[in-house]
């Protein structure tokens, strides 16, 4: 049994605001391993995606993973929209509060990001593995994932956000 | 892991040079005293080799202490070591020994060279009467001074080893044989330096002094070899980290070469062979004496560095 | 004259031998007496690091750096990480705390030539008197736990002092203990049976590093359950 699973029951005690902060920062860790365009698809230009008709207005949906060089679409990670934005859609969401299971979330990221490469960039990837969603620490829809240049102190505080025992 | 930079390394080569110089000074004094007592007597001051010892001993001990002070992170605070003492600290006790040793060393030099100086002063119608009186006083006390200095020189030689053997975290250093090894090799280096400077000062390379010192040197090299063997055999038989430390030091690599080639080859075997050769051949020449002494000195210097660095390579 | 010299030398030798035996014996007697004094001392601080609770976040090191003004490049406390153990995705690491063990029989205190390294009589904490330290680095070489370093600003030996000069003076726990998010660090008085420290020590199996050297350290570790079994 892994170390983390022993403490997992503690996690409901986590405060939501700290998770949000964590998720903002968390989306960047994977950025170190930048998997570059494997596909050379013609029509995968994110700018022409129908999703952006709404999401462009709602907030910044460009940034890291919107890079055209990656040649991925929104659907590559979030799956087909289905009923979205109506209730009961099966769309894949990346956050701690998401209906999407952690394993599915991390599985999506690991589709491109190799876990060994991630382990080399930071040891914490190994222990969180498929047990914590990547968005807890990383952000993908911003220009730079804030966790990449995080100070040692902020990093410790980030750990504290989830691991704090009252 | 490079030979001169590795994790856990605290003391660098300046300490090895300090240990070398302190041991050398002690050795020079030791042989100076023996020469005067057994061979030369009252006319000792005329001997080039006694002059050499009286020159080497103070110069090396002062140079060694200078290096030690410069190596402190706060060199200008060195006086605190002289003011505060700690009876459980080998270094503190060593400083005490060093201070008294230096005092006695200068007193001894004053005593053995008192005759010509007093003669010279009196020849100039009582010039510097104070100096004359002090030297005569030293001359009267020469036996006491010599006795104390002999004990102090042996203490100083052993202290260089105790300084390192007090480090309990390093099995190669924390070894009861180390002080004996450093004492004997320190005496060897003192003898070698006395011979080298003696012949450089145009001392007779075939004189009684050289024969006397060489006579002691042969058994001393054999003893040193036996001590080195005991040192490492003891470590290997202790097992655990002691064994690891011994194999790390003696095995392949930079320090292994230094040990087998430098310490054992150049520093012990060659001088032993030369000494034995000189014993059977009719007379000693300048080159023989100088080269033998130089190899001995080099060997001891390498031994100090070898022990200091390899000692810190393996912790408990 | 020769006879008098020989007699003198013999006398000197006997005197020195006698004196050294006397001083060693005296020291032994004192250290034995010291053990009995120890029992009556009311405060003796110690610490437990629970390797199972530690998550390797380094909050302890950062809190220490801030509170004790430890310059960059050196540290009073380090969490050493070994691993990973196991196969992905079920991997774990082992974290062990490296900091001053506050030995009862401290090698650094024994070797310090000026007495700059000392054991505080009231608390049992091993401290450094910066004013007395000349920077000979004998203590750094003597410490079997290799926790001492030269502070690049003061040029003197430095190490963990359980926040004796900072947090403890304000009646608080050491900075690392306060900062630890998982309560992996427990600090307290080993002489107080009601302290959390003593309760922890009595409820969990602990080990201390290199006790065979006779240092009697006061930093206890709860050994990690994860990790490889090494022979």
TrEMBL record, chain A:
It comes from the Bacteria. It holds the Pfam family Cytochrom_c_NrfB-like. Coiled coil: none annotated. Residues 74-162 form the Cytochrome c-type protein NrfB-like domain. InterPro entries: Cytochrom_c_NrfB-like_dom, Multihaem_cyt_sf, Multiheme_Cytochr_ET. Keywords: Signal. This is Nitrite reductase. It comes from Shewanella atlantica.
TrEMBL record, chain B:
It is found in: Cell membrane. GO terms for molecular function: nitrite reductase (cytochrome, ammonia-forming) activity. It is a multi-pass membrane protein. It is an enzyme of class 1 (oxidoreductase). Its main location: membrane. GO terms for cellular component: plasma membrane. It comes from the Bacteria. Pfam families: NrfD. The keyword Oxidoreductase applies. The keyword Oxidoreductase applies. PANTHER family: PROTEIN NRFD (PTHR34856:SF2). This is Cytochrome c nitrite reductase subunit NrfD. It comes from Shewanella atlantica.
From TrEMBL, chain C:
SUPFAM superfamilies: 4Fe-4S ferredoxins. PROSITE patterns: 4FE4S_FER_1 (PS00198), 4FE4S_FER_2 (PS51379). It holds the Pfam family Fer4_11. InterPro entries: 4Fe4S_Fe-S-bd, 4Fe4S_Fe_S_CS, ET_IronSulfur_Cluster-Binding. It comes from Shewanella atlantica. This is 4Fe-4S dicluster domain-containing protein. The keyword Iron-sulfur applies. One of its GO terms (molecular function) is metal ion binding. Keywords: 4Fe-4S, Iron, Iron-sulfur, Metal-binding, Repeat. The keyword Nucleotidyltransferase does not apply. Transmembrane segments: none annotated. Residues 45-73, 91-122, 124-153 form the 4Fe-4S ferredoxin-type domain.
């Amino acid at each position: 049994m892994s170390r983390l699973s022993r403490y997992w029951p503690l996690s409901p005690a986590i405060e939501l605001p700290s998770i949000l902060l964590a998720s903002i920062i968390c989306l960047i860790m994977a950025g170190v391993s930048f998997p570059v365009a494997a596909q050379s698809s013609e029509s995968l230009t994110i700018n022409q995606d129908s999703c952006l008709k709404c999401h462009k207005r709602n907030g910044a949906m460009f940034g890291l993973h919107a890079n055209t060089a990656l040649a991925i679409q929104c659907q590559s990670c979030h799956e087909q929209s289905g009923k979205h934005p109506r209730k009961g859609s099966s769309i894949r969401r990346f956050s701690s509060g998401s209906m999407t299971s952690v394993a599915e979330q991390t599985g999506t990221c690991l589709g491109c990001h190799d876990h060994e490469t991630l382990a080399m960039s930071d040891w914490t990837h190994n222990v969180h593995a498929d047990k914590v969603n990547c968005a807890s620490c990383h952000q993908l829809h911003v220009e730079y994932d804030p966790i990449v240049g995080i100070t040692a102190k902020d990093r410790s505080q980030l750990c504290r956000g989830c691991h704090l025992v009252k | 892991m490079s030979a001169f930079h590795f994790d856990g390394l605290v003391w660098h080569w300046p300490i090895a040079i300090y240990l070398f110089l302190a041991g050398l000074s002690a050795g020079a004094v030791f042989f100076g005293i023996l020469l005067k007592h057994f061979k030369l007597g009252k006319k000792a001051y005329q001997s080039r080799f006694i002059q050499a010892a009286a020159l080497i001993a103070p110069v090396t001990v002062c140079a060694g202490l200078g290096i030690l002070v410069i190596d402190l992170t706060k060199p200008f605070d060195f006086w605190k070591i002289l003011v505060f003492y700690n009876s459980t600290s080998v270094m503190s006790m060593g400083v005490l020994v060093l201070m008294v040793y230096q005092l006695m060393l200068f007193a001894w030099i004053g005593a053995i060279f008192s005759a010509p100086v007093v003669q010279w002063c009196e020849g100039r119608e009582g010039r510097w009467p104070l100096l004359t009186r002090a030297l005569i006083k030293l001359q009267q006390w020469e036996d006491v001074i010599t006795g104390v200095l002999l004990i102090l020189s042996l203490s100083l030689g052993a202290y260089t080893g105790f300084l390192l053997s007090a480090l309990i975290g390093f099995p190669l250093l924390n070894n009861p044989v180390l002080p004996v090894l450093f004492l004997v090799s320190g005496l060897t280096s003192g003898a070698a330096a006395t011979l080298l400077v003696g012949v450089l000062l145009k001392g007779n390379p075939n004189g009684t002094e050289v024969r006397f010192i060489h006579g002691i040197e042969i058994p001393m090299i054999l003893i040193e070899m036996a001590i080195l063997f005991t040192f490492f055999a003891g470590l290997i038989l202790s097992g655990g980290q002691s064994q690891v430390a011994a194999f790390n030091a003696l095995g392949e690599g930079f320090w292994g070469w230094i040990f087998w080639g430098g310490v054992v080859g150049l520093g012990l075997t060659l001088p032993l062979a030369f000494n034995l050769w000189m014993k059977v051949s009719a007379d000693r020449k300048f080159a023989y004496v100088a080269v033998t002494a130089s190899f001995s000195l080099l060997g001891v210097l390498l031994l100090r560095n070898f022990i200091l660095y390899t000692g810190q390579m393996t912790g408990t | 004259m020769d006879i008098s010299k020989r007699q003198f030398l013999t006398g000197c030798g006997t005197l020195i031998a006698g004196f050294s035996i006397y001083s060693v014996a005296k020291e032994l007697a004192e250290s034995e007496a010291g053990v009995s004094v120890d029992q009556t001392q009311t405060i003796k601080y110690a610490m437990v690091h629970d390797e199972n609770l530690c998550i390797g976040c380094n909050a302890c090191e950062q809190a220490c750096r801030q509170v004790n003004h430890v310059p960059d490049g050196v540290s009073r406390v380090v969490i050493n990480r070994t691993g990973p153990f196991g196969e992905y995705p079920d991997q774990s690491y082992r974290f062990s705390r490296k900091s001053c063990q506050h030995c009862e029989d401290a090698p650094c205190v024994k070797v310090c030539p000026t007495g700059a390294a000392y054991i505080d009589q009231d608390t049992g904490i091993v401290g450094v008197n910066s004013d007395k330290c000349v920077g000979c680095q004998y203590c750094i070489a003597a410490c079997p736990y290799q926790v001492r370093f030269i502070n690049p600003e003061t040029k003197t030996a430095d190490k963990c002092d359980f926040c004796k000069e900072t947090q403890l003076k304000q009646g608080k726990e050491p900075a690392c203990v306060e900062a630890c998010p998982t309560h992996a660090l427990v600090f307290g008085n080993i002489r107080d049976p009601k302290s959390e420290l003593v309760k922890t020590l009595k409820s969990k199996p602990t080990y201390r590093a290199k006790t065979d050297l006779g240092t009697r350290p006061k930093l206890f570790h709860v050994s990690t359950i994860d990790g490889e079994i090494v022979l």
